[in-house]
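Bit of a strange request maybe. I'm writing a small parser for structure token strings and I need a real example to test against, not something I typed by hand. Could someone generate the tokens for this chain?
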Amino acid sequence: MTPRDVSGDDSRWSDLDRPPLNAAALRRGLVREGGLWSGIEVVTGTGSTNSDLVARAAAGKAAEGAVLVAEEQTAGRGRLDRQWTAPARSGLFFSVLLTPTDVPVARWGWLPLLTGVAVATGLSRSAGVDTALKWPNDLLVTVGGQERKAGGILAERAGDHGVVVGVGINVTLREDELPVPTAGSLALAGAVSTDRDPLLRGVLRALEEWYDRWRAAAGDPTVSGLQETYAAGCATLGRRVRAELPGDRSLVGEAVAVDGDGRLVIATEEGVQEPVGAGDIVHLRPA
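Reply from user aminoacidic:
Good idea to test on real output. This should exercise your parser:
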């Protein structure tokens, strides 16, 4: 699907509770000399901002710090190619291009977790919502005393030198608009603000802060403080979980740590600690 630029969209005022993002104001607030963000583009609709930005990077048409935001995604993807859809202007759906060439590739796996920390930090500051991270890349909020997923992160390689990180956050989604009962939104979690402009600015500023800190430490998760901060905000740790692993294998146990490679360490009932680098994690009720 071809992206549609916001400037030519006559329907952008169709839902006054969900005004469009102000691209010019976002650029003024975020793009600066010596900063990470090199450009911000807002389009009214596209299939997937991740796919679009990966293609641009491959064609040499995007520099590090490029940010692509869509008011609506029709083919947004989560982990395991799950679809992510939401009404127009009901959330923040964006992708960023990062080229951490001064960080060993072996440490690039921390980028989705770093983004999760930044999103949680930015939303805490700008929306006043307590958020938690479900390993590896889900954002949880509390609605009516229950944990619900309000966002997700997807990182994809972009050529040999880049990574595109996509973020989707439900902002004003109402109960009757939820795709599944376990979904949530910032509004349902009692956010003090659902104005998407300051929310996006807050998230991108926090992402720049953490990315700069991580790069300055050559990607070392301990020196940068990333490993400790992620663990402190991770709702998965200390829980009984089931990991659905590649090859139709599953693993049940207690999530006890996130190791230096960003893997979730699960202690099984047999007394074995097994690190999981990829898989679907289900939070289980206490036995």
